[in-house]
Design brief:
Helix content is 50%, strand content 12%. The protein is mostly helical. The chain has 2 domains: 63 residues, Helix Hairpins (Orthogonal Bundle), CATH 1.10.287.990; 99 residues, Iron/manganese superoxide dismutase, C-terminal domain (minor pseudopilin epsh fold, 3-Layer(bab) Sandwich). It has a 3-stranded antiparallel beta sheet with strand order 2-1-3. The two termini are 28 Å apart.
C-alpha cells in the first residue's frame, strides 16, 4: 500500500511563497486523498503488486481513469515536494545549467517557456521539464496527466491546480509560477535526476 511521503521541510518552511495553510491542505489533505483513493482502487487487483510508474503506464493504456488519476497524482506530487526547498531558486548546478542553455538557447528562454506552459495550461494541470530521449523539453498537461505516459522522464514539475496557489495568490497564477521558479525550486534535486 502507498503512503504519504514525509516532507523534507516543515509546513511553514516555504512561507511566504507557499503558506503553511496551503502546504498543510495540499500535502496533508489533497495528496493524502489521492493515496487513499489509489489504495482502495487497487486493493486485491493485479495492480496491487506493481510499482507506481507501472500502475500509471498500465492504467493509462487500459483506460482505468480512477486508478490512473490517483496513481499519477501521487507520483506528480512526490516529485513536486522534492523539487522545492526553503530559500530555493538561485544558482543552478553547472551540468543542468549547461544542458538547459544547450537545449533552450539560454536559461531565460527556458524560464519563460516553463512559466508560460503553466500560465497557459487551461484549467487544472501541470507544467514540466522532462527528458525526451536526450533532450530537455518543457510541456504542460491537463489534470493528472504525466509525461511518463509519453515516454519522457520528468525532472521538474509544477502543480497548477487551484489548490496549489489560490489561498496565497487568488487568481494570479503567473505570480505563483514566477515565485515558484525564482524562490522555491531545488535545483540540486532537479540536477540529480538528469
Amino acid at each position: 500500500m502507498f503512503e504519504l511521503p514525509k516532507l523534507d521541510y516543515n509546513n511553514s518552511a516555504l512561507s511566504p511563497i507557499m503558506s503553511e495553510q496551503t502546504l498543510d491542505l495540499h500535502h496533508g489533505k489533497h495528496h493524502q486523498t489521492y493515496i487513499t483513493n489509489l489504495n482502495n482502487f487497487i486493493k486485491g487487483s493485479e495492480y496491487e503488486k506493481l510499482s507506481l510508474e507501472d500502475i500509471i503506464k498500465k492504467s493509462s493504456n487500459e483506460k482505468k481513469a480512477g486508478i490512473f488519476n490517483n496513481a499519477s497524482q501521487h507520483w506528480n506530487h512526490n516529485l513536486f515536494w522534492k523539487c522545492m526547498k526553503p530559500n530555493g531558486g538561485g544558482n543552478v548546478p553547472s551540468k543542468l545549467e549547461n544542458k538547459i542553455k544547450k537545449d533552450f538557447g539560454g536559461f531565460e528562454k527556458f524560464r519563460e517557456e516553463f512559466i508560460n506552459a503553466g500560465v497557459t495550461q487551461f484549467g487544472s494541470g501541470w507544467c514540466w521539464l522532462s527528458l525526451k530521449e536526450d533532450k530537455l523539453v518543457v510541456t504542460k498537461s491537463p489534470n493528472a496527466e504525466n509525461p511518463i505516459i509519453h515516454n519522457m522522464k520528468p525532472i521538474l514539475g509544477c502543480d497548477v491546480w487551484e489548490h496549489s496557489y489560490y489561498l496565497d495568490y487568488r487568481n494570479k497564477r503567473p505570480a505563483y509560477l514566477e515565485n515558484f521558479f525564482d524562490k522555491l525550486i531545488n535545483w540540486e534535486y532537479v540536477d540529480s535526476l538528469l
